[in-house]
């Protein structure tokens, strides 16, 4: 297993994994992801903020990072943190605890960038994800009603999010 930046050749695979994740979300009665703009994903790739786990030469999981997330984290955005978005696991690798691998990687990544926290969010009060992320070491900080969502993807509009934080 290795973790590395995604590249532009991975964009089709990233969208395939997003579609798989969205289809899975629809079976769980949670807010599904919208179709993301390819310009956003390509920009993240170029800025080296899109990541992947490779297992046996296959993309097993993808996610994105940022060092600022003011629309979701509001006044807490001033804290030194990295933010993880859109973890999407290849169905062939579900159940392999890849979020725990991302946790290990993200703590090291955040420490190298002199950050105190690793943060994530999910739309709504997804009890299953809350339990899973807590099991992986995240503290559940509660629910937050988003106010300024114009710059965010559609699933965040008029949404309440579950916030998670991990101390580095």
UniProtKB/TrEMBL annotation:
<dbReference type="Pfam" id="PF00583">
    <property type="entry name" value="Acetyltransf_1"/>
</dbReference>
<feature type="domain" description="N-acetyltransferase">
    <location>
        <begin position="1"/>
        <end position="167"/>
    </location>
</feature>
<keyword id="KW-0808">Transferase</keyword>
<dbReference type="InterPro" id="IPR000182">
    <property type="entry name" value="GNAT_dom"/>
</dbReference>
<protein>
    <submittedName>
        <fullName>Acetyltransferase (GNAT) family protein</fullName>
    </submittedName>
</protein>
<dbReference type="InterPro" id="IPR016181">
    <property type="entry name" value="Acyl_CoA_acyltransferase"/>
</dbReference>
<dbReference type="GO" id="GO:0016747">
    <property type="term" value="F:acyltransferase activity, transferring groups other than amino-acyl groups"/>
</dbReference>
